[in-house]
């Protein structure tokens, strides 16, 4: 057992630090810190995406022939940890982390040749068409229907909680192409051009004041059959494969540590009256830090298992659950730390583009929106209730 | 970076788990608990034979040179079987202090005897007024010619009734809470003026209050000078905390396994308990507590010999996380076993008792939250 990185890994760590120093501009860093929503706006994530793409680092989970960087699990850990510590934006996950792996695993050679380079370069911006107004965590009950008409599907229905549909030029969607015995049967995985006639987008403003998610309506939208991934009616299998990536993103402790560090900074600043000297705040910080340490060690144990070719077990639901709960504890602490300044509501977005003076310090502005938007962490990607069901089944055989 | 077990560590885990499974039934444990020592001398002899007593001791003195990770592996297996043998007192605390502070001569005298299973030790340190403050020592050591004379009272001395020697902390100089001026003395239990009030320990094993009334010992039994005893005590107690955390994880895992199995077979309203989401979700949270606990126990072991403050943050962090987690798992295990959970007929209650002992030993969650916050520089000692 060895808790330190070897010489090769330390050299890689330095390479990552150098890359960040060269590419993370002060503007980008400030904009990332002032982002209260779950995802980063494309004008922040885009430049970072392109810098990573130029270096060949944008798709860590991809095989080398698809354009992945062939990192070991330890290198991936180092990369994510350094990016989090430096406060880089995150890359939009819908392309690289979600649909990319599905196309790599189940796509035709033509689909791979067309879509993968455009995901890598950032030319395509993807959104995810999974949830529907009547189908949240019970995803398989979805009703959006695709009816075959010659070489095309005709799609009618609606998707909801579609992150960045208003920016995306493509959507991957689960749609019903047949009615099988089980509700999981008869679902297909379709790639949709967002410029297709018949698509309308309704913004949904979150309680944090952000326009991040949308409802998307399909009204006789025609999509070529060649845009289907894999076989008709097998979409549930492909969609579940993707959910593995969404839930088991894997390395989240470093981002939590960064977020807690921002709250600690606030608590230590003169602006908020130095409540850090209060034992109750200091011990709450310690409690959260210990939770992060535990999550980090769990991630490192998993990384070590992967690195040595062992099976880490059914842990992705546990990681998702704990990450979401700790994230919410941090945002709650943030609100408590700023005291009366939590009463200031700034409706303008994005916060980093504000040109007027504000009644509170700039770094306090995202605190309340982050808390409010952050309530979604225990809901999206399968609610905590769903995660606990999965844990009971997979970890305990219940 | 590799947190997977080495081949040797895997073998150690297998042999410890096998021992607990096959040679340490609840019946055997109950029988041993009724002995005057509170444990089985025969089992102790087996520990010696298996090399477990020598495991963390230095190579030069009959030891195997293992570290906190290896001790943690043993301790987790011990916890799963609620082992009551005085491993912590004799090997981790007693021998640990001698290895850390002792002269070459003292190490050569004490450590091989411990490794061979011929010598049992106990650490007589805590005092009533100190609560969990390791520096708070009122027991005095007064110089008298070539000797020292010890006066004071120690509480919660684990395994003192069976110990051959007590390692007694006493103050040579300074006020009650001064970090300097503390020394340790290896005192034979049968020394005149040393008297025990023994008791059964919650969750198994024995302990005692120890009164020192003009206990006269030669200078040769003193460990360390006046400034290095407290840092050595802190290091050794941190290693003991790491071992205790692993032991608690073993208890938590055993409770989780028993409770999950019970809810699969116990039927109410015509279906197994585990069909109810309220029950499944509780068990999911218990499983999460076990995994997180295992992670933190490993962190504590890996940082057990690290410098301050990393060591303190890892050790206290583990005590916080596992203190909370173990209590949650044990209380929920009782709850999910229903009425049977509050009877002596099941083992669940025995684990709950040991969990309470674990929480109290060397500082509860609140104590370690303060210690963690202090070590992190976010709390001044005045506010603490």
TrEMBL record, chain A:
Residues 127-221 form the Acyl-CoA oxidase/dehydrogenase middle domain. Residues 7-123 form the Acyl-CoA dehydrogenase/oxidase N-terminal domain. Residues 233-395 form the Acyl-CoA dehydrogenase/oxidase C-terminal domain. Keywords: FAD, Flavoprotein, Oxidoreductase. Its cofactor is FAD. InterPro entries: Acyl-CoA_Oxase/DH_mid-dom, Acyl-CoA_Oxase/DH_mid-dom_sf, AcylCo_DH-like_C, AcylCo_DH/oxidase_C, AcylCoA_DH/ox_N, AcylCoA_DH/ox_N_sf, AcylCoA_DH/oxidase_NM_dom_sf, Mycobact_Acyl-CoA_DH. GO terms for cellular component: plasma membrane. It comes from the Bacteria. GO terms for molecular function: flavin adenine dinucleotide binding; oxidoreductase activity, acting on the CH-CH group of donors. Belongs to the acyl-CoA dehydrogenase family. This is Acyl-CoA dehydrogenase. It comes from Chelatococcus reniformis.
TrEMBL record, chain B:
It comes from the Bacteria. Belongs to the acyl-CoA dehydrogenase family. Residues 241-368 form the Acyl-CoA dehydrogenase/oxidase C-terminal domain. The lineage of its organism: Bacteria, Pseudomonadati, Pseudomonadota, Alphaproteobacteria, Hyphomicrobiales. Residues 122-203 form the Acyl-CoA oxidase/dehydrogenase middle domain. This is Acyl-CoA dehydrogenase. Its cofactor is FAD. It comes from Chelatococcus reniformis. It holds the Pfam family Acyl-CoA_dh_M. InterPro entries: Acyl-CoA_Oxase/DH_mid-dom, Acyl-CoA_Oxase/DH_mid-dom_sf, AcylCo_DH-like_C, AcylCo_DH/oxidase_C, AcylCoA_DH/ox_N, AcylCoA_DH/ox_N_sf, AcylCoA_DH/oxidase_NM_dom_sf. Keywords: FAD, Flavoprotein, Oxidoreductase. Residues 6-117 form the Acyl-CoA dehydrogenase/oxidase N-terminal domain. Transmembrane segments: none annotated. One of its GO terms (molecular function) is acyl-CoA dehydrogenase activity.
């Amino acid at each position: 057992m060895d808790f330190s990185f070897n010489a090769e890994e330390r050299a890689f760590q330095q390479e990552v630090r150098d890359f960040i120093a060269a590419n993370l501009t002060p503007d980008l860093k400030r904009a990332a810190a002032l982002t209260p929503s779950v995802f980063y706006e494309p004008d922040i994530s885009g430049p970072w995406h392109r810098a990573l793409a130029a270096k060949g680092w944008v798709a860590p989970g991809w095989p080398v022939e698809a354009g992945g960087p062939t990192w070991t699990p330890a290198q991936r850990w180092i990369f994510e940890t350094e990016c989090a510590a430096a406060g880089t934006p995150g890359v939009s996950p819908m392309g690289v982390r979600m649909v990319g792996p599905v196309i790599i695993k189940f796509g035709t050679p033509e689909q791979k040749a067309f879509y993968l380079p455009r995901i890598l370069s950032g030319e395509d911006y993807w959104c995810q068409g999974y949830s529907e107004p009547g189908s949240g965590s019970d995803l398989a009950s979805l009703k959006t229907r695709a009816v075959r008409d010659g070489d095309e599907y005709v799609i009618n229905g609606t998707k909801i909680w579609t992150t960045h549909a208003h920016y995306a030029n493509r959507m991957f969607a689960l749609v019903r192409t047949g009615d099988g015995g089980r509700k999981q049967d008869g679902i297909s995985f379709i790639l949709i051009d967002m410029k297709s006639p018949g698509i309308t987008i309704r913004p949904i403003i979150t309680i944090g004041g952000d326009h991040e998610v949308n409802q998307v309506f399909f009204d006789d939208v025609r999509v070529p059959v060649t845009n289907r991934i894999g076989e008709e009616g097998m979409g549930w299998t492909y969609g579940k494969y993707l959910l593995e990536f969404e839930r088991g993103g894997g390395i989240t402790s470093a981002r939590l540590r960064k977020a807690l560090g921002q709250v600690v900074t606030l608590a230590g600043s003169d602006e908020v009256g130095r409540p850090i000297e209060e034992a109750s705040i200091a011990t709450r910080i310690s409690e959260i830090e210990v939770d992060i340490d535990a999550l980090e060690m769990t991630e490192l144990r998993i990384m070590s298992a992967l690195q040595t070719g062992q099976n880490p077990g059914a842990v992705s639901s546990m990681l998702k659950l704990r990450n979401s709960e700790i994230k919410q504890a941090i945002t709650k602490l943030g609100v408590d730390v700023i005291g009366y300044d939590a009463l200031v509501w700034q409706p303008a977005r994005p916060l980093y583009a504000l040109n007027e003076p504000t009644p509170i310090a700039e770094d306090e502005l995202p605190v309340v929106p982050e808390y409010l938007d952050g309530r979604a962490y225990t809901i999206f990607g399968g609610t905590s209730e769903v995660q606990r069901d999965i844990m009971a089944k997979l970890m305990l055989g219940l | 970076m590799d947190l997977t077990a080495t081949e040797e560590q895997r073998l150690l885990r297998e042999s410890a788990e096998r021992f607990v499974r096959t040679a340490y039934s609840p019946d055997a444990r109950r029988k041993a608990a009724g002995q005057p020592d509170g444990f089985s001398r025969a089992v102790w002899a087996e520990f010696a034979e298996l090399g477990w007593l020598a495991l963390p001791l230095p190579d030069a003195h009959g030891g195997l040179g293992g570290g906190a990770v290896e001790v943690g592996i043993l301790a987790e297996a011990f916890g799963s079987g609620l082992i009551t043998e005085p491993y912590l007192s004799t090997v981790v605390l007693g021998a640990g202090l001698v290895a850390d502070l002792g002269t070459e001569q003292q190490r050569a005298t004490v450590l091989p005897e411990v490794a061979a299973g011929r010598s049992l030790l106990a650490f007589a340190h805590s005092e009533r007024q100190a609560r969990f403050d390791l520096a708070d020592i009122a027991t005095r050591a007064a110089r008298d010619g070539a000797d020292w004379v010890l006066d004071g009272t120690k509480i919660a001395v684990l395994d003192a009734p069976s110990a051959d020697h007590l390692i007694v902390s006493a103050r040579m100089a300074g006020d009650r809470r001064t970090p300097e001026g503390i020394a340790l003395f290896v005192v034979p239990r049968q020394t005149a003026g040393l008297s025990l009030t023994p008791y059964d320990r919650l969750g198994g094993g024995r302990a005692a209050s120890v009164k020192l009334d003009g206990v006269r010992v030669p200078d040769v039994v003193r460990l360390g000078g006046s400034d290095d005893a407290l840092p050595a005590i802190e290091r050794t107690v941190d290693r003991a905390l790491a071992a205790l955390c692993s032991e608690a994880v073993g208890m938590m895992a055993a409770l989780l396994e028993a409770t999950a199995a019970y809810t699969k077979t116990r039927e109410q309203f015509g279906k197994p308990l585990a069909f109810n989401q309220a029950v499944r979700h509780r068990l999911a949270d218990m499983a999460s507590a076990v995994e997180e606990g295992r992670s933190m126990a490993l962190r504590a072991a890996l940082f057990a010999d690290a410098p301050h403050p990393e060591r303190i943050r890892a050790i206290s962090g583990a005590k916080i996380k596992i203190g909370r987690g173990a209590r949650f798992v044990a209380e929920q295990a009782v709850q999910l076993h229903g009425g049977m959970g509050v009877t002596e007929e099941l083992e669940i209650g025995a684990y709950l008792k040991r969990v309470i002992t674990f929480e109290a030993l060397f500082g509860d969650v609140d104590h370690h939250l303060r210690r963690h916050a202090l070590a992190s520089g976010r709390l001044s000692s005045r506010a603490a």
